[in-house]
Design goal:
By secondary structure, the protein is an alpha/beta fold. It has two domains: 203 residues, Periplasmic binding protein-like II (D-Maltodextrin-Binding Protein, domain 2), CATH 3.40.190; 95 residues, Periplasmic binding protein-like II (D-Maltodextrin-Binding Protein, domain 2). Helix content is 45%, strand content 16%. It is built from 15 helices and ten strands. A five-stranded mixed sheet has the order 2-1-3-10-4, sandwiched between helices. β6, α6 and β7 form a beta-alpha-beta unit. α2 packs across α11, α8 packs across α13 and α11 crosses α15.
């Protein structure tokens, strides 16, 4: 009997000690979040849209206000300028910023391939043969400095061209991009889906580089290339761990849903204007990029190294020996979210 009493007392004592800790883990430091994204209608950010539309952020106790900007570089500027707490954007920005001695950290992955394709206009470049034909031409990207710009730079560098050999034009990731290419305002385009599939299927472009599949990404980058993720200042992650955990939970919940979602589920969930007036082509685009969407929010070990190698190949300011990749991301929050949702 005395042993039982002692065991009960010990258990109660342990519970009383653990209770404050458990409460601390559940308390969200910043329930209202300003989140910036550049081109939210693109499949690149589909996990963000799904998590928002299905109420997964609210389910985690968050009030997330999403600002949709012209491109990823604008979203990054919002974070640096203080008008955004968190960005849904390309992972490589964490490396670029560290090269400028500013530390931002990715904490949940949305895409495991860039889902970016580059094509030349069949209208203005019908005689295209090699990358050198792009010298002096206008290339449309979502926004200067964005991930689409980065992929375009990488493709050009492999043809012996520098960024200064062409003119980059910001065209967004929606109807404006379609119009710019079809009207002849640009000679080539590097963009995401559904824009690229729509241009491709209508015969408006000839695809010359494609990272919408894992195989295509391997061919272009030589390894796994992380794409969209949630990132923020390293200090924000340190000071708001429960908030970051809630955000990661919501995204991984969305990724889990996407694993089994059918075409009709997608159509019912995304806003009507994301379809760009053609449901069939939108779904064709989704099928093309589906494998590029992250599964569980975890950053693959080789991914950051691939990104660093790619950036260093055309960006002189990025010195591989000066970049600490361990400070560009953490899998701590995604790992817990994966366990929670069995993703």
């Amino acid at each position: 009997m005395s042993r039982r009493c002692f065991s009960t007392a010990a258990a109660l004592a342990a519970a009383s000690l653990a209770a404050p800790s458990l409460r601390a883990q559940g308390r969200i430091e910043k329930p209202r979040i300003a989140l910036a994204v550049g081109g939210k209608a693109a499949f690149y950010y589909l996990p963000l849209t799904i998590s928002e539309q299905l109420g997964y952020f609210k389910a985690e106790g968050l009030d997330v206000e999403i600002s949709d900007l012209a491109g990823g570089s604008r979203a990054l500027q919002a974070l640096v300028g203080g008008s955004a707490d968190v960005v849904s954007g390309a992972f490589e920005h964490t490396i670029n910023m560290q090269a400028k001695n500013q530390f931002i950290e990715a904490f949940v992955l949305e895409g495991r391939a860039p889902q970016i394709a580059m094509g030349v206009s069949t209208k203005t470049m019908g005689s295209y043969r090699t990358l050198k034909d792009l010298k002096g031409k206008k290339i449309g990207v979502s926004a200067p400095g964005s991930s689409t710009n980065m992929v375009a730079n990488l493709v050009l560098s492999r043809g012996g061209l520098k960024a200064s050999d062409v003119s980059f034009v910001g065209v967004g990731t929606g109807a404006g991009a379609l119009s710019a290419l079809r009207s002849g305002q640009i000679d080539a385009i590097c963009n995401t889906d559904p824009v690229m599939t729509m241009l491709e299927q209508k015969g408006d472009v000839k695809i010359i580089s494609d990272t919408r599949t894992l195989k295509g990404t391997q061919e272009v980058f030589g390894g796994p290339m992380p794409a969209a993720c949630l990132y923020t200042h390293a200090d924000f992650v340190k000071n708001n761990p429960n908030t970051c955990q809630a955000l990661a939970n919501a995204i991984v919940h969305g990724l889990k849903w996407l694993q089994t979602a059918g075409p009709s589920d997608i159509i019912k969930t995304v806003p009507e204007n994301y379809l760009l007036g053609d449901r069939g082509l939108y779904l064709a685009s989704f099928n093309k990029v589906r494998e590029a969407i992250a599964i569980d929010g975890l950053m693959p070990e080789e991914g950051p190294r691939t990104a660093l190698k790619a950036l260093a190949s055309f960006e002189p300011s990025v010195k591989p020996d000066k970049i600490d990749l361990s400070r560009t991301y953490t899998n701590e929050f995604a790992r817990r979210a994966k366990e929670k949702f069995k993703a």
